[in-house]
Amino acid sequence: MAQHTFTVNGESVTVDVADDVRLLWVLRDVLGYTGPKYGCGINVCKACTSHINGKAFNPCAVRVGDLTESDEVTTIEGLADTVDGDLHPMQEAWLERDVAQCGYCQPGQIMAAVALVRKVRAEGREITDADLDAIRNVCRCGTYNRIREAVRDGAARM
Amino acid sequence: MTTVPAQPDQPDPWEPEQQPPAAPSDPSPDARRGLSRRGFMGYVVAGATLVVAADLTTGAQPAAAAVPSAPQIPEVFDLGDLQTKSALPTSQLITITLDEDGVARFAIPRMEVGQGITTAAAMLIAEELDLPLDKVEVTLAPARPELVFNQLTGGSNTMESMYTPIRVAAAVAKGRLLAAAATFLGAQVSSLTAKQGIITDALGGRATYGELATLAASAETVPVKVNLKSRSSFRVVGTPQNRVDARAAVTGAKKFTLDLDVPDALPTMVCRPPTLNGSPRSVQNLAAVRAMPGVTDVVVVETGVAVRAATFGQCIDAVRALEVSWNGGTVEGESDESILRKLKAAELPMAVPKVPLLARTLDLRFEFMFRSSAALEPNCAIADVRGGRATVWAGLKSPIVAQRNIADALGLPQTSVEVNVVTGGGSFGHKLFGDAAIEAAKISKAMGKPVKLLWHRADEPRQGRVHPMATSRIRATTLGSEVLTFEQRHTSVETDFSHGLGERLTAMAAELPAGLGNLGFAQSIFTLTQELPYNFGVVTQLLNEVETGFNTGSMRNIYSPDVACANELFIDQLAKRMGKDPLAFRLAFLKNERVKACLRKVAEAGQWGRAMPAGTAQGIAIHSEYKGATAVLVEIDCRPATVDRKIRDAVTGPRVTKAVVAIDAGLVINPRGLEAQMMGGVSDGIALALTSSNHLEDGHFLEASWDNYFYTRQWNVPPTFECIVMPSDRDHPGGAGEAGVAASVAATACAYARATGTVPTRFPVNHGTVAFTPKSFVPPVPASPTDGLSHTY
Questions:
Q1: Residue at B460 is within a domain
Q2: Which of A124, B159, B497, B660 is the most exposed place for a label (fewest CB within 10 A)?
């Protein structure tokens, strides 16, 4: 066992768990952040997509031991706190377009969408169809068209 | 077959006794024998606050008295009718409670899996009770054995069967609140107006529902006659509404089974055999694995070796470390080709009806591969089996059957097993079975501790439920511009219906249309769902099933996606033979006006027949089921630049570039939810036609995750999607959850055939290519990667 300290949704946390336990399980099983979902455990389905230091990542593919004290993890539960207002603009777009069906993939979809918008902004451009085609998050309910609309809508609100 | 009255034992329930003033009498065009179809019997149930109830079978419409020979059975009596009527004789109350906070609470005896039934149910209550939608709370009822056959979520039947009972209960509540308000305000009921949860009188007096909740309560249970609102006065039903759980979904607050915090229910996984349905013989390193970090328990169960640990990550490590000797599985040595041979051998002969000498025959045979019905949320369940009692939490569409099976597995009376139904992360038929719940209960019993069981993703396609492999052979004879005969022989690996529908059919045997009672159960489902709405002379559609060792189930839309795909491709070939356009041919032969209207609509909206470049094409197809009709038009791009797109760990291939759906689902409760179901149906249809299948090789399926099992992804999605909800004069909702799949797969297949000039006969079309390196079978699950920080964006 080893102690690991990092920040989750603005709060410093310290956990006592073996180095190689993947962060997804530390978040879910140890710390109780159940927003990030398990869908594959091998960084394929992207249901656990969260942010580390403002960038999208998949905690199922990161050892807790690889985090440092300065690392800031944001899960879907903490997304709204990164902006003024009740919800993040991407969440508002999601609600407006009633994107969710079962909802299981939606935290990951939203976190991926926010990161995508930030990425293309940093590149000085707007979201393209090619960007949307490249989103890897699986939605087994198949609500993909509403996801595409909401990403663009959310981008306009961000 | 006899006519079943809606309320067999109620004396004259049709005369309104307690009619809300807001609901003026509105004689229905369907009124018979001078009775209003909107008059029903409900109950005020004894309680400290207002509790109202209706019998779950209230409003089931009478079945047809006889089955004429010409129409097919589903036209007059379909699977939905079977589900709606099968429990008529039992008393099955559903209750709505109105609490002092002014919130109406209802535990629906069905399962929400994303299809939107909790939203639709809340809308019905808000409508009939004149309450804002956010003052209605719909939860999922636990297993209620007294409901007998009436707690199964399937067959797109929920709103069809719940539409009237929910409204009746809500109408009873409103009547009681009005009466209470009259006392409270010292006014006549006729002077009161109920709006948005507040009752006002003519003099400006007001009372909220919350204030009236206890005053309206009853010390004893009393029957009440009510009239329901007329359709013309609906202000919520029929309007687009967002899901009631949307905010919870987008904030991460929505709780699925794995998110529940049950004390001491530690993560648990199972090391599963390398071949399908193999079983453990011995474990070589039990002690070593028990000593691994975080591991608390390791036990051998029928399905494998179960591991309980502090985190699922440590479960995965332990599963990978286990050294197990395995007994062979149930399909040892079998492959796609060997099963296809068995199916071919079981294909029923065509009847070869007598046709004129000059008639021509068209014969085609299609093959449909195994597909995984797994949702994104894998099989999972929480179980606490201790001290002669069991408590289980899981996503269960058939919770009563699961409760009985768990009781049997544990050797406990059913009354000692509590089964809680949790909202599911998708189902698509997968959650009809209590596989994970039963397994979790057995493991909990063996360990003597609570467990939170999760199937690894790799376990799903390899050991989980699949849509059975099937073949469909069609022969038609034509003479000039007429189709004289149409024969279909559908042959399938057996579909498992042991989730409870079987009991309904048995219970209903005497009520079934002539001849149906003599068929086997699967054949009955096939007969109750398959309708070929064309004038094709003598039509026969028969099913034969082959018993094998597979774990199967009714994947979304059961037989229809395969049957419709075969039929509609075949119909395009018939049209071609007669030199007719596919749309014109269908319009000429369709006998169902609702189907035709949908077809015309998508043809118009999708610009059927527009000029398109070589290698691209349109496809158009229809489907008729669930008392409704669907038509889909797609455009596909099969040009090399599209087909050869390279995306890491992905199947690209032909791309559907546009999809237009028209759906007639009868009375629509929530058009926004219906559109969502159609969107999902198109995503499913594209996957079934082009990309998603399991490959069987040497007794096991090769697929182990979403980078092997190619469900539709963003790069396969049609950039243009349009859904048209057709107006309907029906006074009852039909089915919606599955209605979009069949015509979507068929239209995609038809478009592919027209774009490539080749009629595909094996589905999905890419099945011949194994586009991945299979993951290991021993250990049975892959290690989680560690390079996630190298892939941030």
A1: no
A2: A124
